[in-house]
Specification:
The chain has two domains: 59 residues, no CATH class; 63 residues, no CATH class. The relative contact order is 0.11. It is built from two helices and nine strands. Strands 5-6-7-8-9 form a five-stranded mixed beta sheet. The protein has a four-stranded antiparallel beta sheet with strand order 1-2-3-4, with no helix packed on it. With 137 residues, it is an alpha+beta fold. The structure holds zinc ion (ZN). Zinc ion binds next to loops.
């Protein structure tokens, strides 16, 4: 970035065009910091916006939204396990479980009984999944 100066061309994000476009530098804040630029497409003058900074913040926001959706089961799971006063029991098809019981499943790990579906079926929230299991056989 040694060629910066008033009248030089630079790539900047344009808020009006919603694109990264060629702009002409109108003012400089310092030798290395661009002040205002003029869009060569819409002729609008605005503060310089680093296109790489605009792109980076968009990517971050996208990732955050995705992660929070993915975490919802484990969030519910964590909340339920933390608020339950039941002791963890080993999961066994013959045992009769009650609502709110914490079970220790050999494959899925610790889970909490969320719903009694049937006399012999329970819905259990595990850390990464919600499963229907058989009990009381
Ligand atoms: Zn523009």
């Amino acid at each position: 970035m040694s060629q910066l100066g008033v009248g030089k061309e630079v790539l900047s994000y344009c808020n009006k065009c919603k694109l990264t476009l060629a702009h002409l530098i109108v003012t400089m804040k310092s030798d290395t910091t661009i002040g205002k630029v003029q869009c060569k497409t819409c002729q609008g003058t605005h503060a310089y916006k680093d296109p790489s900074a605009v792109k980076a913040s968009k990517t971050r926001r996208g990732k955050k939204t995705k992660a929070s959706t993915k975490d919802s089961i484990s969030d519910i799971w964590m909340e339920k396990v933390a608020s339950s006063s039941s002791k963890s029991q080993k999961y066994n098809i013959k045992t009769k479980f009650e609502l709110g019981d914490i079970i220790d499943h050999p494959k899925f790990g610790p889970g909490i009984i969320e719903k009694l579906i049937d006399a012999d079926k329970i819905q259990v929230i595990f850390r990464h999944d919600i499963k229907t299991l058989i009990h009381n056989k």
